[in-house]
Model the fold of this input.
Amino acid sequence: MPFSPLIALITDFGENDPFVGIMKGVISKISPGLELIDITHNIPPGDIQRAAIMLWQSKPYFPPGSIFLTVVDPGVGTSRRGLIAFSDDHIYVGPDNGLFTFVLDTSSEQWELENREYQLPHPGTTFHGRDIFAPAAAYTAKGIFGSEFGPVITDILRLPKPHFRLSPHQIQGEILYKDRFGNLLTSLGKFTSLDQMTFEIEPWFDVEPKLSGKIRISRAQASILLADGRILSWVDTFADLQDDECGILLGSSGLLEISANQNSAADLLSLSSGEHITLKF
Amino acid sequence: MPFSPLIALITDFGENDPFVGIMKGVISKISPGLELIDITHNIPPGDIQRAAIMLWQSKPYFPPGSIFLTVVDPGVGTSRRGLIAFSDDHIYVGPDNGLFTFVLDTSSEQWELENREYQLPHPGTTFHGRDIFAPAAAYTAKGIFGSEFGPVITDILRLPKPHFRLSPHQIQGEILYKDRFGNLLTSLGKFTSLDQMTFEIEPWFDVEPKLSGKIRISRAQASILLADGRILSWVDTFADLQDDECGILLGSSGLLEISANQNSAADLLSLSSGEHITLKF
Amino acid sequence: MPFSPLIALITDFGENDPFVGIMKGVISKISPGLELIDITHNIPPGDIQRAAIMLWQSKPYFPPGSIFLTVVDPGVGTSRRGLIAFSDDHIYVGPDNGLFTFVLDTSSEQWELENREYQLPHPGTTFHGRDIFAPAAAYTAKGIFGSEFGPVITDILRLPKPHFRLSPHQIQGEILYKDRFGNLLTSLGKFTSLDQMTFEIEPWFDVEPKLSGKIRISRAQASILLADGRILSWVDTFADLQDDECGILLGSSGLLEISANQNSAADLLSLSSGEHITLKF
Done:
């Protein structure tokens, strides 16, 4: 694996307290001068699924060797394990609570963060981001290999899968969350576009029943059905929508999104996380 | 132009979603180890003018060679162009939608971001910050020159000018926006102070009618008239104001600001963006 | 002192305005390529005590040679002094208004920031973070020593001490503030744990009457008494608390905190800063 001394951070620590700065101080003390990139620190407190999805969205755009330090850790101080994982080109560090559901697969290797030599002295019970995870990321950046941290883990904890059910000519999914602009990300993906009107879908997590190959969908014949019967059509970009009109478009992560034009689709439609939606095609 | 490998970022992407982190990942993949400085990511969604003013406020304080990656892009996916501009000591990258109104002049050079070689493969229709602008900034930092990105642009889009009307012994302007502390920035500037009581004004954008030279103004004889008839006097610093008193002072960008002492002038006066104000002198 | 080119920033400038980005531009112009770590910029406007405590919480985790650029400066433009201080392994830069109360002691050395050579030309009256403090931090990182900035200061301004009163078998303290998760930090500390049930306290600031040596406290016999008579018991970590139950635990800074399990203790108890609490042991 080519090496790039970069640590990318995702936490629910917010930006008002010194938690993130302290983690960076710890990193800099162990491994000075690394490139540190904040993905976000505003994961809603304890929202492991949100962080897990964000990690999946972010990782393809980071250089090989990037270390993702991910700390959303409501179980801190309990017996939940800390882990370091190597998968494809990237390294992941954080609590074993489902955060890595969408980025680790059967080809990944994971180890428990057990070796006290690579932790701060006397770790407390409330801030493993500082005492265990930041040091692990910093030592990894210095070249410490996974197996030096502790024993292999083969049974990492995985989150329940988002809703995704394929039937003839339709896929049912769910709304995951809204972004800053009020776009509603859905579980329907991952789509790639073959041309402006034709798309292929390959699920971004293991689904049951398995799809036999990719499914090809023509935008012209596709629409989204909301749970209350409303129908949205699939457009190319925001500007194709009239004022206060909502539509679906292929979001930047390859997931279908419900969007409006310079307006919040979440507000216009009063939809929220978990509601079912159906793609007809 | 001396070269400094620094990219400064201004966006309306907020800090809750992975957008900014992903842009930085893209930059680091192309051009690792650059200094990345966040100016802000909390531009109100789609507020091009706010970002344009902030860029003007920030640029004098950045080293020669700094690249300003500015993405407030409500027209993403439409035919609006992407551009890279070289002006004085700085480089600007972003959509051609008025963002660069206050930093580019007739001596600047601009090129359209057209060359697919310096974009991510298969750019989408919703996130050119990731697919086009971040790569352009990163390749520029590696030494790719403006003309390699695409054809010259001579007709960049410019925003309407803020209100600024000179009459004998008065200038009428407008309130631009409030900052975190509740100070109200106005279009009246750019002032420099000759001494504690004497100031010169030279407009910070092209105004009609043109001023013939700089205008000298004595603080002792100057006051601000609000639209409803209230009058504010010009003070030296915040501490010169009594509790709940508002006054005008020379803000850090050379614009007159309406301020209070450890209080929000915006709240005390109930003023908001666009309202007219008159400097009498 | 070993040298590490790192500047850590604490301000009340928020994240919506260009203030912090401009300070970093100034730093980069003087001293390019430094590692810059944001601790927070969301100190409530003018809340010097909050910043002073955060500085105390953060500093042990930063490498020797770190420069803390701390700007919460409601008195900007008045005669309050700017200072640079060297203490133990760290350097502090900011206004002399109490910010450094908890990190400087009689062994520290301080100098006034007076030398115009290490400031921006023509400092204004409203943004010394940009004109004076950021340059001082950047020049220090280049090796300029404290005494080159100006005369020695021996009488730095100190904040009033938080409440802390020892009586037989109890210590009375106060609530300092709540963090993002709704944990309420108290002035009761600094505790270190000898084992899971036994703790020692050594005050983190000068208290009257002085403690004669450290006090040893057994968790099993300790409880917190709120001003209204409610009693909280001391637990090991968040997960030991039932739904909606609040307890005390040893926070990550060594201060006792009032916490809940995946819930906000501040909301559950309706307590706020300044309220007294008593540790019985």
In short: The mean pLDDT of chain C is 94. Chain C has four helices and 18 strands. The first strand of chain C starts at residue 6 and ends at 11. The first helix of chain C runs from residue 19 to 30.
